[in-house]
Backbone:
């Protein structure tokens, strides 16, 4: 997918007191539409960038999950962050469509939330490929993508240098949902490994 950066406002809220993007710089950070605040200059597409451990990345993921109104779709290498899993389960209980795929080698690992999510009613499967599912992505309401090196784990939150982007762009979300469909179909009919 080719991303035309002129359509994006890229914001890192923590690193400076000035926000710069496709429309110049603003003196204070602004939020993407749908992210808790709006600014008329930043309406097209928006990317928020966070770094762990210094930015407290989990709270930004939780804010987006809690704001979901229609659907949550995820692919994850690992998820041991109980607060993130509980937020996802709460959305199932609220009637949202939630589907996910977990790396099979980590689904039963120490502290893994695969079983918790499944028991909470989430349509979650173990991946069906012969290699590692290394995605770390959540798509919310078919328009917002959360992705980066950040695993949805407490150790990623406090013990690792990680990055995470929250991108408000329906076209990008569509690409991630297409990849999810491929991964989900493979999880339903796993590849025979040699």
Residues:
């Amino acid at each position: 997918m080719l991303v035309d950066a002129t359509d994006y406002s890229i914001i890192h809220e923590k690193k400076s007191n000035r926000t710069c993007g496709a429309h110049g710089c603003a003196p204070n950070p602004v939020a993407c539409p749908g992210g808790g605040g709006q600014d008329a200059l930043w309406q097209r597409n928006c990317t928020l960038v966070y770094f762990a451990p210094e930015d407290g990345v989990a709270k930004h993921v939780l804010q987006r999950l809690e704001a979901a109104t229609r659907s949550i779709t995820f692919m994850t290498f690992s998820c041991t962050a109980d607060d993130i899993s509980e937020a996802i389960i709460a959305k199932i209980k609220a009637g949202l469509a939630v589907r996910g795929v977990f790396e099979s080698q980590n689904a039963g690992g120490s502290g893994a939330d695969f079983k918790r999510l499944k028991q909470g009613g989430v349509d979650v499967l173990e991946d069906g490929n012969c290699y590692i599912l290394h995605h770390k992505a959540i798509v919310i309401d078919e328009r917002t993508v959360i992705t980066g090196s950040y695993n949805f784990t407490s150790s990623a939150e406090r013990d690792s240098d990680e990055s995470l982007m929250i991108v408000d762009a329906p076209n990008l979300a569509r690409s991630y949902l297409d990849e999810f469909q491929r991964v989900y179909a493979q999880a339903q009919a796993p590849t025979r490994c040699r």
